[in-house]
Amino acid sequence: MKTNYMEFNRELYIYKLLNHKDNGKIKLLTGINCVGKSYFLFEIFMNYLLNHRTNRNHILKIDLMEQCSEQFRNSKNLINHIENKLIDQKNYYVLIDEIQLIDSFDFLHDNCSKLKNADFYVTGSDTRFFTNMSCEKCNIIEIFPLTFKEFIQIYKGKAENHLEEYLLYGGLPSVVFIREEEMKKEYLKIIYEYTIFNSINKHYKINKLIVMDKLIDALADNVGIKIDFTDLCDFINSTNQTITKLSIRTYMKIIKNYFVLNQIQSLNIKKMKNAYSPVKYYFTDLGMRNIRSRFDISDKSRLIENMIYNELRTRDYEVSTGFFSQHVSYPDRRIKRKHHDIDFICIKDKELVYIQICPSPNNLKIDTLMRSNDNAKKVVITNEIEPTYKDDNGIVILNLYDFLLNENILNEL
Description:
The protein is of the alpha/beta class. It has helices at 11-20, 37-51, 75-85, 105-112, 148-151, 163-169, 173-176, 181-204, 209-220, 229-237, 245-257, 286-292, 300-314, 363-372, 400-405, 409-412; strands spanning 26-30, 59-63, 92-97, 118-124, 138-142, 261-268, 273-283, 318-329, 335-348, 351-358, 377-382, 389-390, 396-399. The strands form two sheets. It has an eight-stranded mixed β-sheet with strand order 7-6-8-9-10-11-13-12, sandwiched between helices. It is globular and about 85 Å long. The two termini are 41 Å apart.
């Protein structure tokens, strides 16, 4: 499903591709449906190449969705076609859209690596074809919906005036440029149904689509809440449907393969080990979440948490939810073991950051960070319109908009 829309520069992804340019590996662009992978590859990235002295004759475009390219879904035909186009020793850039339609990605990889002057860039929407691809074979780059900073490029006025629209309709580029609210909702519904009933069902032949639908509804109502497969199983079975925990596990894997949802593990920060359960789920795009929750955004704090999670992923942080326990002495001399939760544990370039999220500085969440008693950078993100500052305990009270509008702020604190 493809759309055209006014161009965002999406400089982050240009930068990521340039880091891997001409390295002999396939550059694989993945992401949720309608996030703009095809447009980025065939318009933004191709224009970048042309503007930096690449001859148009040395750029090969192949869209496997087009009927005229159907023969190239056969990997042998595709390799032969590309070989015939390499008529000199200069560098060629091969851009292939919808690579999941090919019969053998492994065959393509093994043979394209032999074409020394061809640099491959491909898009794909289903990770089941790429799960065995290691970093040694393939550079995988996930394209995310527009960040809030990208989103407000088309608006005038203060950033805070546009937060609610972003929380409501998300950041899929093709949705952002629709002005009428009902049309936005209808288009999000089309994207959701195309993803579930066309893309997913076409490849996986789901026996109980209604169950998958209800599963996504349950997760939409529980964004950012720790949940396990038993909870989900009980909920589905209470709706007069029958499902097992094994089936839920299978369905969740499929949904994640199409980038609709992300799952994060619970990390014991004292042992630095993941707990198997419970986990949290966040939607890749808030509009996709809201189409399933009937656009109920009454609990705005959970949507802000989802937005912050997506922003952290865009900035290449590894994200978990954290917890730890410690013994606490009470005035009556009793000693009890107390459990503490941290919203996000973030790791990037070996730097550890603990993040708590709350509408205003919260003594309980600040106390939890203090009790963690380690050298991690500690941050509380609050959506009060106050400047960012560091308290007497060295904990940074970070204004939400400072966080959203400065992608490097966690490094600068």
